[in-house]
Amino acid sequence: MGEGVGCMSSYTICIYCSQTDPTRFRSVEHVIPQGFGRFGSKTPTLGCVCDDCNDYFGRELDQLLTRDTHEGIARYSRGQLSSEARPQKRLSLTLADPAEAGDFVGLRVAVDGTTGQLMPFIAQFHVHNFSTGKDEVYFPRQIPGLILPEANYGMPGTNGEKATWRCKILAPSREAHDAMVEALQHAGIDFRPETSFQSPWGSASGQPPSFLVEITSEVDKPHKRAIAKTLMNFVAFHLGRDEALKPRWDFLRRYVRYAEGDIKARLSHRPFWTGQETQQIRFQDDSINLRIENLDGNVVGAVQFYNLHTYEMILIENDALYQDQEIGGRYTAGKLPVLGKKRPV
Ligand SMILES: [Zn+2]
């Protein structure tokens, strides 16, 4: 017992796409993406998610959640490391203290998922996009073919009278700096630096000293779908496949699988296990907490990774579960899950 228990039945059907071909159920779906760890002998998995949905989720949602989000980075500090060292694509990691950063305000850094440590930074070209009002950062591999339309970025060059570009190169060494200038010129971007290279750390080693890093991320639709999937999986695992197949879960399943519609979601910083925790005293901070409950006339799901913020999502509007369907779970890597039903108030 334990593996795929929520789905056992005499016939197969996928809770996300209604696939029924029994040969398309060779893999198991992890209720909580594998990157967040295993939970003793009771790691919750589902047998009622077909291989096509499982592949799609792994590629589109799980990788994003485990590597390119705030909670993905947070798992590294809990020892849940990745097998890959590639830089984060969707996150902006910058030096937290502008005074400490000096001329290197805005420097993008990355965390090596295999060690949880910051990577030595690489040369980067920063340019302000006037149409979005944001600074964009490009790394050497992104320079060939880069086009910066005048309408969005202004006039190139820093010496000409009409130049309106706001741009700079941040590089760990003179060589990397000059290579970046050359790459830009090869791409037809006429960048002439006003100042020559200056070493960021007062040495040419390119190894930054230890500093605080600020992580900026937007909770966009793929990120919300990845979290919503965890809740849909939790429903299927603990309330059973037959419950998860009911039409009342159609909105949630289609939002997760096909990106249809928009889920109503909010962030909260309140203690997760209310009534037992306070702002100061909380359960251990290395758990992933999940809850499904009736709230304000809707069915609401809540997910908290570690002691970061809590995502609350309206899973079903204007409906209610039976009282014994209101469930909560606390998952701590390396330990057995703790599960409970909501007690009557
Ligand atoms: Zn499917």
Output the radius of gyration.
24 Å
The H/E string reads: EEHHEHEEEEHEHEHHHEEEEEE
Please count the helical segments. Answer: 8
Average pLDDT metric: 83
Shape: elongated
**Largest sheet features:** 6 strands, antiparallel
Q: Give the fraction of residues assigned to helices.
A: 10-25%
Question: Explain this structure to me?
Answer:
The relative contact order is 0.14. A hairpin with a 5-residue loop joins β14 (327-332) and β15 (338-341). The chain has helices at residues 51-67, 70-76, 98-101, 150-153, 174-186, 221-239, 241-244, 250-258; strands spanning 29-30, 45-46, 92-95, 111-112, 117-118, 124-129, 134-138, 167-170, 213-216, 265-268, 287-295, 298-305, 310-316, 327-332, 338-341. Strands 10-13-12-11-14-15 form a six-stranded antiparallel beta sheet, covered by helices on one side. A three-stranded antiparallel beta sheet has the order 7-6-8, covered by helices on one side. The chain has a two-stranded antiparallel sheet with strand order 1-2. The model has no long low-confidence stretch (mean pLDDT 83). It folds into two domains: 5-65 and 219-341, no CATH class; 92-216, no CATH class. It has eight helices and 15 strands. The longest helix is centred in the middle third of the chain and has 19 residues, at 221-239. 22% of the residues lie in helices and 20% in strands. With 345 residues, the chain is α+β, with helices and mostly antiparallel strands. Zinc ion binds at residues 14, 16-17, 19, 50, 52-53.
